[in-house]
Amino acid sequence: MAHAEGGYYVPHFSFWPIFGGVALTSMAAGASIYLNGSDWGFTVMMIGVALTLLLMAGWFANVIRESVSGLYNTQVDRSFRWGMMWFIFSEVMFFGAFFGALFYARMLSVPWISGADPSTARFLWDSVTLNWPTAGPAYAALDWEPMGAWPLPTINTLILLTSGVMLTISHHALKAGQRGKSTIFMWITVLLGSLFLGLQAYEYYEAYQHLNLRLDTGIYGSTFFMLTGFHGFHVLIGTVTLLVIALRLMAGHFTPDNHFGYEAAAWYWHFVDVVWLGLYIFVYVI
Amino acid sequence: MTVATHAEHHDGPPSSFFKRWFLSTNHKDIGSLYLLWALLMFFVGGTMAMIIRAELFQPGLQVVDPHFFNQMTTMHALVMIFGAVMPAFTGLANWMIPLQVGAPDMALPRLNNFSFWLLPAGSLILLSTMFMPGGAPASGWTMYPPLVLQTGMAFPFMVFAVHILGISSILGAINIIATVLNMRAPGMTLMKMPLFVWTWLITAFLLIATLPVLSGAVTMLLTDQFFGTTFFYAGGGGDPVMYQHIFWFFGHPEVYILILPAFGIVSTIIPTFSRKPLFGYSSMVYATASIAFLSFIVWAHHMFTVGMPLSGELFFMYATMLISVPTGVKVFNWVATMWKGSLTFETPMLFALAFVVLFTIGGFSGLMLAIAPADFQYHDTYFVVAHFHYVLVTGAVFSIMAAVYYWLPKWTGHMYNERLAKLHFWLSVISVNVLFFPQHFLGLAGMPRRIPDYSLQFAEWNMISSIGGFVYGASQLLFLAGVIICIRGGKKAPSKAWDGAKGLEWEVPSPAPFHTFDTPPLVK
After folding, report:
1. Predicted-complex ipTM score
2. By the CB < 8 Å criterion, does A88 face chain B?
3. Which helix (H) or strand (E) holds B231?
4. Concatenated DSSP letters for B115-137?
5. Is B23 within a domain?
6. Domain carrying residue B302
7. What digits encode the pLDDT tens for the residues A47-92?
8. Structural domains of chain A sorted by starting position, each given as residue range(s) with its CATH number in brackets
9. How far apart are CA B334 and CA B85, in angstroms?
10. Using a CB-CB distance cutoff of 8 angstroms, which residues of chain A are in contact with residue B156?
11. How many domains does chain B have?
């Protein structure tokens, strides 16, 4: 069991937290103003985004400096580990809400509208037959096609799984003290992540241009784009994180037995990977 | 306990006001900030409640227009839940958990302050909607579509405020888990932890598991409103009831988030003033964990009347009733702790005793609401309002007041004024029952909630309830006065302010020095 040993590093004070409060307020208020129809809200939102990026760069740089100068003991390291683990768990639950919406629509609401629950169907759309994938009864006239599992999503699955393997090879190399090899495989991982993002952008382009599949294509479009979109956004975050880790590897920040930043990024990447497997199965294949 | 301190960063607080209160990494200062913000929001939300009770003083419309009344019911709930009760518990956690487990600070001190600063950010965004065209959200705090989609300019602000307050709570919860699991002093095994720490550990888990789901739900509202998705629109294959399921998957654990720390507080205070160890410590821990587990599989009891399959109604009815088993264990243990104890009735104990009695009343009315066929009668009536105010006001809020009186000597170094506090207690406990007990009758007689007007037969009980409300509201000014007086001065508090108190927090001086437990104490 974990034991405290004293000398736990507690920073004196930090400018970043309140800075973060301002940044997120600016982002949220700007986005709200923009959505309410005032264009200047967009500027406020982008200032908020810029401040948030600055916040992350500054805060992480602060932590890296402290880590490199040896202020952290193993107990601090464990705090970071618990923190990252539960952060990833919260992300899992966030995706859970959207998976829940997908399952609810497929298993309950669409069949109910389609007549499985006569009292609902009679009062809404009498004797309409819906089969997944569907955009819903009000969009029956809409001409669109769902996204198939082949070829792009399957290729993307292979890319993401391969990237997980590359990352693991890189990690083992780091632990074995082979920093050069570790760096090379980390760059391969970053490249595969970028490739995934490129292909997903192409998939969205295909959906909008050739399948007439859009975010507002009923419940199929809603669940498809919200799930894959949030996932893609997380891949973007993960790729940027791994990119930073690759640069830090080259800068020599990590030692074979002290490299929590590296591991946290790797955990995050595997989490993104696992979410994708869920998406691949429930959004594309089944 | 004497603690050797390192020389450099373990002196007093920073001399600059700005540095100390805006850039803090100190769990005590951040805890104070949380508590003060919660106190402020308690009065903001309380003012809204006063407006509601003023309108309901008599039948007819006389004080505010109906749309504003709906804004008040909505904002009262959001402000009290996300602005007052949750931050108050987080403030208590910040102050007390490191002291109770013998840690130098929270595990992630900077993140701690980030959690705090997101709280005023989110609260102010939410409150700013009051001054927008179309007014504040008026759909009820549950934000059900399609009604909530009629909100005016406030709509996106409401969604993002929920996001920011959610991030604040998630990060705070992560910090608490990391602190409890990683920062305990040597010898402080899990089953030796004070119950406040245990209940908060489990609460933190609930927060991390459910707030992201709420974020997801309001994100879907946002995209339904602005980007053409159809999650909650049957024409697009979605379902408004789907929102209710996702919301209450968060919402039910949320009500345990609001009450589990209260259980911890009461389990701390009752043994102190009974001068006996807590009866059934381990059963308390297991009961808390069981309640947390059950809270995930009972959510649809909030939705008995939306048209669920019969199997769903039955499952959620029986699962809900199961919660009364671990809750009963807790109430039994509190009573058994007092059995043959040498009891004294200082204000924290009075609030804790009122908690046990009145929370139990709220629990019983909850059991009534759990009966699905009966709920068809009670649903959306004042009976529900009476029920959840018994568990949240005489439950959560009373426990917070108990905790504040209990630990104020540790925080300020002064004893609070016992006469003033007792007056606050007695006025509160009498008026709160005048306020909420008649609402049971109103609800059973059929008065709907969230409506500014009512039929004449409800007039008497509403007037009585409003009078109770005004007295209760005014009594809280005594609480404010008591706290301010205690901060400014008063009888010097010894390091162990209560002779029956146990725990590490009573082994450091009062007021607790800026830094404590830099070298961990050894717990035997």
Report:
1. 0.95
2. no
3. none
4. HHHHHHHHHHHHHHGGGSTT-S-
5. no
6. 29-507
7. 999 999 999 999 999 999 998 888 888 899 999 999 999 999 999 9
8. 1-72 (1.10.287.70), 74-285 (1.20.120.80)
9. 23
10. 31-32, 35-36
11. 1
